[in-house]
Amino acid sequence: MRAQPQASHFVGGSYQESRAGTPFDSLYPATGEVIARINTADDAIIEAAVQAATAGQKIWAATPPAERGRVLRRAADILRRDNHALSVLETLDTGKPLQETLVADAASGADCLEYYGGLAATLTGEHIDLGGSFAYTKREPLGICFGIGAWNYPIQIACWKAAPALVCGNAMIFKPSEVTPLSALKLAEALSEAGLPDGVFNVLQGFGDVGAKLVAHPAIAKVSLTGSVPTGAKVAALAGEHLKKTTLELGGKSPLIVFGDADVDNAVSAAINANFYSTGQICSNGTRVFVHTDIKEAFLARLAERTSKAVLGDPLDETTNIGPLVSRQQFDKVMHYMQLGQREGARLVCGGSAATVESFPDGYFVQPTVFADVGDDMRIAREEIFGPVLSVLDFTGEDEVVRRANDTEFGLAAGIFTRDIQRAHRVIDALQAGTCWINTYNLTPIEMPFGGYKKSGIGRENGHAAIDYYSQVKSVYVEMGGVEAAF
Description:
Helix content is 36%, strand content 20%. It is of the alpha/beta class. The strands form 5 sheets. A 7-stranded mixed β-sheet has the order 14-15-16-13-12-17-18, sandwiched between helices. The chain has a 6-stranded mixed β-sheet with strand order 9-8-7-10-11-19, sandwiched between helices. A 3-stranded antiparallel β-sheet has the order 5-6-20, with no helix packed on it. Helix 2 crosses helix 7, helix 3 (83-94) packs across helix 4 (98-104) and helix 5 runs parallel beside helix 6. It is globular and about 80 Å long.
């Protein structure tokens, strides 16, 4: 097996195996090949990780913030040094094209570690002058954070959770998705090589039962999940039962609004990025593309023309730009929605079926698909598909499209294209979404907070905002005079 790790888990600064764990396979989605066999975490390895994190966190919290920052920046350098090997591993585990993983996965994770490493020495409190007496605040760690990753951006998500947690002085136990268990172990290696004390970052493998045990564990102070809305609801309920702090980055059915004065080629580029990048498996994707009737047919023609040039093929070939879906389960789900869209009466512009890729007959490939004349009540316009399925909806008026764009339980992201700068800001202000773009889509620099409204999540990742979700503020009043009492 060409991607077999030394052992299933990384605990206390070294690889560890769980003797009583249930084995499961990691598959290469392009071929169905078993690339690694992993054991789920048993109770003994879970407790070992908690004990290691408890001990490591005390050492790490006492480490000067500037030194914490140096460790994170060294880890960033290691990820960049090993970027090609990490990108190949991520491609094998997810099926995403190497063309993408070389720039969007470990490299993005390195940017995150570097950013928070640079913030480390600035995480200070404030002095509050009370006229002689005074107060001051301190920003302190929470303790042990538990991170739960998703399968679409495994190492990036691990970094998005680990970096702010670690810079604040916390320890983290991270559980990657069972679908993509491999690259988080490499992040643990990099952090250890960079000088992170043993036990401060641990990786445990497993399914929902392992996650539930850690969410409920009394030593865990904070839970951060990236996943679906149903999974988020379960985690939030369990965390709430135990009064754990939570950050939830969940799903979306985001609108991308293209007004009649938009640059059509730029809008088409954004629609492609918002639906077909990563084979459509991105939570913030703008899968409801509202296009003004004045330019709809021109938009569709250009979109179909450019989509026909997509290269499906060997994910390890850097000329490939669309790979397979991550799993058979995801393939079946996406195929169901492609068939459902046609049954619901949407006009199929292109795609709509499985894709045959030479030399990869067992791969989970599907055609990038565009539906037009989509109605607001169609299931393809209301439910998160998580695949390369783009729905184009007509509109004529600004108020109308804002109302329809907001008519969803989700609120993760939104984007608009227009040359009218006043309209751009007016519409963005009216959209119920946490992460928005004007004249672009799906750019998520680490400096910018990321998260959603409504059922798309709780809290924010990235930027200075994430610090508030991985730390707590202690207030101290200092009396400089005498103390009076009633008796």
